[in-house]
Amino acid sequence: MLWFTWLAANTTMWMNDVASAWLMTSIAPSPLWVALVQTASTLPVFLLGLPSGALADTLDRRRYFMATQFWVAGVATVLCLVILLDQLTAPLLLALTFANGVGLAMRWPVFSAIVPEVVTRPQLAQALALNGIAMNASRIVGPLVAGALIASVGSAYVFVLNAVLSIVAGLTIMRWRRVHTESPLGREPLASAMRVGVQYVRQSSRMRAVLLRIALFFLHSTALLALLPLVARSLPGGSAATFTVLLASMGVGAIIAALLMPQIRARLPLQPRVLLGTAVQSVGALVVAFAPSVWFAVPAMVFAGAAWITVANSLTVAAQMSLPDWVRARGMSIYQMALMGSTAIGAALWGQVATWTSIHHALAISAVTSIVAMLMAQRIVIDRGTEEELTPSRVLKVPEMQVPPQAGRVLVRVEYRIDPARAAEFLALMEESRRSRLRQGALGWQLLHDLYEPGRYVEQITDASWTEHLRRFDRISAADVALRDKRLAFQIGEEPPRVTRYLIEQE
Prior knowledge:
This protein is mainly alpha-helical.
């Protein structure tokens, strides 16, 4: 049910993008205006992704997902009416495309968080590949249907169908009997949830490496999609049908690659897979740029689509595997922000380059610089992290108070006594500890060294409140427990490290 809902949601997205891009070629046919349609569609995800992810981690995901579909239906209805009343202008089209993108920004993080709820961890890669099939099947169906409607009855009816499909999807989600469980500590405040989400990603070397790669890939690969309407027009006999065929060819390639993803993953490790996919996508873009006819462009689009889904799926799986469930929607929203933000910037960038030079030269430049940038990223940013056990652990005792403080920050001090000869090892381990505490949501962290006792260290952790301090216990994973055991192994004497907690009264 959820998969078919996702298929319908992506079909409406592609129908909207095709119809909007084609409308813009009639209203304002300059490369920059046409490319800005892609920017308007993707920029909301960059601007609203984090709040959306925070809400998806704290609200009832079923109701939230349902609301996003009704939002998209409302925007499609308004756009249809504007076209029928003959009031559409280029700025208004961009504004309504932006509003439709708001729906995409709201629904993507919540769906990303839902998928691991309904499949096991070993099945996650295949499930995400199936979602890739849904997205790329919609890449074929959406443009074909949109092109047929544009050619037969006009663009307004594309948005009518969008509204209908979005309403049906929203009603379908209502049938899902998901039980939302509220945290005993209450709903996490939005500002705090956003801070913790950003903090988790900043302290995760694996997520940082994934974000850089996905941003570089989409910054360059978006040139092909953003300029494709103009490429289609420039081909002999180019029309809306040509544009549709090229998009559909890319979708076919993506579906083929998605079906072969288990074999591709088994044969190629992550980094070579991403680099090879980037190279194939770049070569495909080069061929399309200088293709003398649609017969040369179609197979190149197939290969470009296969490479696109290979890179996107590989990095999406890597991001999902790096995130525990409690911060999954926020982490994936930041991932999507990197993807869509780079897409929005790339569309405007390559549109401007095409204005200065030509469509063909812009695609050629993007293809060459894409490979160079990814090679540099592979050399400079090293993913040092290993796949950790992120399942929440309940082995640590949660502190209790008869009358918990209602306000004020909480300071936790953990006193260690170690062999001074092992200080260098201990400091390296405490750097891991710092990242672990901050990933859990701590507001601050310090390590103090006693000037008079070389073997005495005090770890100092600050939490925003007593409730936020308790939330950290819910977020402690099996990997964090293993890290705690390593810290305890440094403790000399029979007494464990001394833990004290303070309420910060004044500063």
